[in-house]
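call fold(seq) -> C-alpha cells
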Amino acid sequence: MKIVTSGGGIVIAMLIAVFVGAGRSKAGEIPANDPKIQYFGRWDFSNPLSPRHSWPGVSLRARFEGTSIGIRMNDTYCYYNVTIDDTLTSVFHQTSTAPAFTMLASGLSNAETGHTIRISKRNESAWTSFSFEGFVLDSGKTLLEPEAMSERKIEFIGDSYTSALGNEWADTCAAPDAQRYTNIDQGFAALTARHYNAQFHSISQSGLGLVCDFESNFSNTLPEKFGRTLCSSDSIHWNFRRWIPQLVVVCLGLNDYTAFGGYDAKVSRERTAMFKSRYHQFLEHIRQTYPHVKMLALAAHVDWVRKTVSAIVDEERKIGNADVFFGTFPEFDEEDYVNGGHPNVGTHQKITEYLIESIDAMHVW
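ret:
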C-alpha cells in the first residue's frame, strides 16, 4: 500500500503489522514503562505496560542502540508517522489482530550514538482508545538516555481544523476515509509547536463546538471533554498538574455556527449571547486550571465567528483580563480546501503564519 502526501508529492510506504514469533529475542524487548521512553500528549497509564491514548497528535520518542526497531501495539485503526533520526521514513497502520509486532526500521547503521525514533499519531480516534505495548530491539541492545524535553508547552483546543482532518486528501469532496488522509503533523497545531520548539497537546475533535456540536447536541461539546484523559471516556480524569502549558490556543465556533443555522440565516442575538457567555466561562475555567497561562482566542474565517470572538476578547480586556488575546485567519482560495471544506497541507501552513504572528505579539516566552 502507498500513501501520497498532498503538497510535497512524496510517496511513503505504509507498514503493515505482522506477527513475529521466536525470531525475536527477549533480550531486545523494551516494555512500555521503560523510563527512557518519552510520552507526549494525554496518555492513560492505569496499566503502565499498556498505556492508552485517544486524542489526536499523541506521540512517543526514544533513543535506541542497534540496527533495527519494532513496535508492539494494540491498534487496528490509527495511522502513525514513523520518524527515524529526523527523517520521516514510513506511515504505520496496523492491520493484524492486536496486539501485534511490526518492524518499523531495519538495516540502520550500528552507530555508537544510536538512533532516535519518533512515532506520532496522525488522526482522530474519539470513539475508542488504543494502546502501546513496547519496543523490540536487536538482541542485547537497549534504549539510550533520551533527549531533553522542551520546557515550552502549547495546548490547542479545537475541532476538525485543529485535528487537520483530511488535510492530505486531494479533492474538495469528502474523503472516503478521512482518517487515512489526516496528518496532524502537517496541521497548524504541530507546525506552530515546531516553530517554537514546543511540546503540544491537541485537545480536538471533529464536529464539536463550544456550546454544541454541528448537529445541535448541546451535551456533546469540547469543554465537556476538556478534562478527559481519553477523549472516548468520561471515567478517567486528566491530572492537569502533570503538564502545564504557558499558552492555550482555543479555536472553536465553526460547528456552533453550523448548528445555529448560520450558513442559511443570521445567527440570532440570543444564540450569540449564549455563545459569548459560554466562551467567557470556558476562558475562566482554563484560567483557573492553568494559573498564569496566556490564552489566544483564535477565530476561523467565518464573519460571525470572527466578530463574536473578537467581541469576547474585548469584553475580557475591559474587565481587566489581560491574559486573553485575539487572533484570526482569513478564508483562502477554493483550491486551498479539501475533504468537504477543510484546509489542505498548504493551507495549514498559511494558517500557521497567522498564528505565529499573533503569538509573537503575546510575548509568551
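Residues 269-289 form the longest helix (21 residues).
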